[in-house]
Amino acid sequence: MVAAMAKVPAAAVAASGLVGGYGIARWTEKRPLGGVALAAAGSLAAYEWNRQAGPRAATALTVAYVAAFAGSHPLAKKVGAWPAVFAVAGGVAAASWTVTRRAGR
Predict the structure, then answer these.
(1) What own/partner pairs with CB < 8 Å and gap ≥ 24 does 21-30 have?
(2) Per-residue pLDDT tens digits for 46-99
(3) Which of 37, 45, 55, 86 could form a disulfide with 21 if both were Cys (CB 3.0 to 4.6 A apart)?
């Protein structure tokens, strides 16, 4: 199953986890359910980051993923919830793409 999912870029998985986790939490009104989606996508992305770029890069990108989640909360107070989620998801996706692209060279 993981081999089939490896065709989806880790950047897309991470961004989808942040956006999807928030969306699920908001629409179901069950924050833990959104947290499960966030954690599942983060785990899969971390696996791919480790596979593609090594443990140091995977650790740094995982920290960025968690920091993006945490940072979206105060940012949402300034720009709104969805814009904050999309902004941090884009930032994590860009970082992921940059790191994994460099590692692939």
Answers:
(1) 21/69, 22/72, 22/81, 22/82, 22/85, 26/81
(2) 999 999 999 999 999 999 999 999 999 999 999 999 999 999 999 999 999 999
(3) 37
Cα–Cα distance, 33 to 26 (Å, whole number): 10
Mean pLDDT across the stretch 14-20? 98
Phi/psi at 100 (nearest 5 deg)? -75, -30
Q: For residue range 90-105, what is the model confidence (pLDDT) as tens digits?
A: 999 999 999 998 876 6
Residue 104 gets which letter from DSSP? T
Say how far apart CA 69 and CA 88 lie, in whole Å.
Answer: 7
CA angle (69 as vertex; 81, 55 as ends), nearest 5: 155
Helices (H), 1-105: 2-5, 10-28, 31-53, 55-79, 81-103
Is the separation of the CB atoms in 13 and 28 below 8 Å? no
